[in-house]
Specification:
Layout: H1 3-10, H2 14-20, E1 24-32, E2 44-47, E3 53-58, E4 65-69, E5 72-75, E6 83-87, H3 89-94, E7 104-106, E8 114-122, E9 128-129, E10 147-148, H4 149-157, H5 165-169
Antiparallel strand pairs: 1-8, 2-7, 3-6, 3-8, 4-5, 4-7, 9-10
Helix pairs in contact: 1-2
Keywords: Iron, Metal-binding, Vitamin C
GO molecular function: L-ascorbic acid binding; metal ion binding
Protein name: Fe2OG dioxygenase domain-containing protein
Length: about 180
């Protein structure tokens, strides 16, 4: 069973699995050279991932990944031979905000290079992206707009990395 299948099962929503079925994958290799003045450089600016799920392998166990929690940056200590699984913006939208994407950044190390492999899981390119209908009802309104996956990707990749601003732009504003 896939990671997304497990998440869909917990929410009792087969629709989530269907959105990502026959979807796309993208892989990126990240290399951050050692920097004698790391306080002057950010390896990767704060952002949340636009995919559904990101699976990250930190190769040489050098610290650098940080997440924002309650306004503070917290380091994620790499564990040997372990994967980090990040919820991305697309899964946040499909789960109507039940699963949240997390803002993170990559910092450089003063004496060691850092390398990681990231695999991103996306829905089908010609699919539709919006809250799963099984997670929207009289008591729970849709928290995000529905759009095409293609349009969502164009918007996400067409802007600068800037926190969680893109997923926030997809929110529905209710007058309750």
């Amino acid at each position: 069973m896939t990671i997304i299948a497990h998440m869909a099962k917990v929410l009792e929503s087969k629709e989530i699995l269907e959105v990502f079925e026959d979807g796309m994958q993208m892989m990126r290799v990240n290399y951050y050279p050692a920097c004698p003045e790391p306080e002057k450089v950010i390896g990767l600016t704060p952002h949340s991932d636009g995919a559904g799920v990101t699976i990250l392998l930190q190769l040489n166990e050098v610290e650098g990944l940080q997440i924002r929690k309650h306004g503070k940056w917290l380091p994620i200590k790499p564990l040997p031979n372990a994967f980090i699984v990040n919820i991305g913006e697309m899964l946040e939208i499909v789960t109507n905000g039940i699963y949240k994407s997390i803002e993170h950044r990559a910092m450089v190390n003063s004496s060691k290079e850092r390398m990681s492999f990231a695999t991103f899981l996306f829905p089908k390119y010609d699919g539709v992206l919006g809250p799963a209908s099984t997670l929207v009802n009289q008591n729970t309104q849709a928290q995000y707009k529905t759009t095409g996956v293609k349009d969502h990707l164009k918007g996400f990749f067409g802007r600068k990395l800037d926190g969680k601003s893109y997923v926030d732009s997809k929110r529905v504003h209710h007058n309750n």
